Amino acid sequence: MAAPRSPLSRLFTVLLAGVLAGLVLAVAALPGNLLLGLGARAALGSYAALPASLKTPATPQRSYLYANDGKTLITTFYDVNRTDVPLSEIAPVMRQAIVAAEDRRFYDHGGADLRGLARALVANVKGGGTEQGGSTLTMQYVRNVLKTDPTRTAEERAAATDPTVGRKIQEIRYASALDKSLGKDEILDRYLNIAYFGSGAYGIAAASQRYFGKPPAQLTLAESALLAGLVQSPDAYSPISGDKGEALARRSYVLDSMVATNAITAAQAAQAKAEPLTLHPTAQPNGCTAVSQGHDDWGYFCDYLRQWWLTQPAFGATVAEREQALRSGGYTVVTSLDPKIQATAQQQATKVYSYDNKRALPIAAVQPGTGQVLAMAVNRHYSLADNPNGQANYPNTVNPLISGGASVDGYQAGSTFKLFTMLAALESGRTLSTGFDAPAKLPTRYAAEGPGSCEGRWCPANANPDWMDGYRMMWDGFGRSVNTYFVWLAEQVGQDKVVEMAQRLGITFRADTDAAFAKDNAANWGSFTLGVAATTPLDLANAYATVAAEGTYCTPVPVVSVTDSDGKKVPVGQPSCKRVLDVDVARAATDAARCPVGQQSAFGQCNGGTATGVNDILDGRPVAGKTGSSEQNSTETFVGFTPQVAVAGIAANPDDPADSVGSAVQSKVIDAVARVIATAVKGQPEKAFVAPSRELAGDARRPVQRPVVPERQQQPTQEPRSALQRWLDRRG
């Protein structure tokens, strides 16, 4: 039963009846064909005069995010749960049901059914407990477009449903103009894609999924009749949020109407009426905190994509416009997220630390040569849910622990930064065979106090003197991670050149103190090569991916393709790459980077490494990489790469740099990253690294170069404070 009429509604029908009284009396005696002609002449409207939104609807639609297979749904974004589908993808019984329920003479009238309007007006003026509608499907379509058009103002949208005679007459004129210009099937298609079916579902595609968990092409007769019946009063009749009894009563009404229009037989109607109400309600996820069930780890990637989206001018001139485009533009986004790599990364991150551990292992995987981000994992739930007292960001958080930003500056990555020193040295003309008799401790020109100083100067030491001290070249200096060798090498090249190299490969200084020192005093940043600046797994993986791609840097990108609601590709997301290193320099650095992981350089100069188990996990497949331990083992890092993938993981306590993770976790981090690499390259052809030139390798028999002792009269320069020290300063 329909809801009782409001006084305003009754007044409106009386007013409209008065205006059209003469027309009502006239049409009552006119034959059908003559009536149609009168309707066409009375329209007084033209297609050219229609609002643009009625010609080309700008109705809001849901945007979909898929994994890189184009099939695995990550989440959707919407203000209005709606997706357009062509009429060919809507079950014929659904088309017949909506016509029978809302506009039986749809295929006969000219957009405004004067006979039906007259009948409704007379009935409504007389009263009787129920109100009859005189609006055709075309008129309803006009109303729906105008009240939801995102290009119109709020006042204009509200006016589309004003209970005034003028608005109703305008609606009739617009409907008549549309009917003269568009085919009936086109109008029906547009109507089915904009009508509201209750429970947040706009359009038949959303309604079919919301109530029955299926596409509209698969709707049965009973299901179609139920959905068609909801349109008259969506909230009241919704079997999910409204009255199921009313919904079934409306279903029966629609089935009887379908019999009356000869769409189905009485027997088919009876059979459909006898079917029980069987729902399979599904709620479409909305946003990054509503990713697919069991995959809340995808939220970090989703959030990274959303941040990327908000920087793209193709989606609007302002951040607000881009946000609105994502939520209402009906885009289909095929992301770069690889579900298999992501699953392994998440499994490995939670294997090292549980969700309830205050320490974290954020992991990122990047594809060399494209910059496509393949995975972003951490032992946290991407969720706004409350945490236990004292646990600010675990097990639930939406902070960008993997990519950085907002309040996340990143983490020290230790000796992984020695790569930038090696690259700067190679670029300056030095060779891989550049030798130095590395001492256990190396006095420098930088002022320092405390245990790490030598007579007032910063004096870095080797972590394992028995294994690290002695004559080293880049191969074994990198393989054994010899601090004093690389601090010396950085001084020969120039600290500013090392810092610039890191920035060139995408290392971003998010901590204010790091950014200031890099800008104003990079030449005196002696400890930079030891990885004291904060970074993120994503930045680090992409920097090493640049070396894997033989010197081609690609901006990290989270998408493969984006298409708009019309199926047209949006020109965004293509790899944005540029050469930042000479090919031979990148190949030389890769050759030395094979030493840490238990493989051999092209020149046979590897003689030990800090992550030799990686070779076994990769079954001897060509791989390179580097470990990193920061001051007091506050973090432990490993980054590895093949020509096809680069992966980085950093074990840290995101909330407390003073909480050292300890050296014991290093082997677990190495194992975790290596297994992510193994998943990424599984099934791919094995690719070998290209050896560098003999010229860049140099002569391994070059005489020993002794350390250069800084002159006493040289003015010492204060070393920048580490992340741990900065955190302690903030704590007071």
TrEMBL record:
Q: Where is the Glycosyl transferase family domain?
A: 73-258
GO CC list: outer membrane-bounded periplasmic space
User: Which InterPro entries does the UniProt entry name for this protein?
Assistant: Beta-lactam/transpept-like, Glyco_trans_51, Glycosyltr_51/Transpeptidase, Lysozyme-like_dom_sf, PBP_transglycosylase, PCN-bd_Tpept
User: Disordered: where is this region?
Assistant: 692-732
Q: SUPFAM superfamilies attached here?
A: beta-lactamase/transpeptidase-like, Lysozyme-like
Annotated GO MF terms? penicillin binding; peptidoglycan glycosyltransferase activity; serine-type D-Ala-D-Ala carboxypeptidase activity
What are the entry keywords?
Carboxypeptidase, Cell shape, Cell wall biogenesis/degradation, Glycosyltransferase, Hydrolase, Multifunctional enzyme, Peptidoglycan synthesis, Protease, Transferase
Q: Kindly provide the name given to this protein in its UniProt entry.
A: Membrane peptidoglycan carboxypeptidase
Which residue stretches does the UniProt record annotate as biased composition, category Low complexity?
Answer: 705-721
* Organism per entry: Micromonospora jinlongensis
Family, similarity comment = In the C-terminal section; belongs to the transpeptidase family. In the N-terminal section; belongs to the glycosyltransferase 51 family.
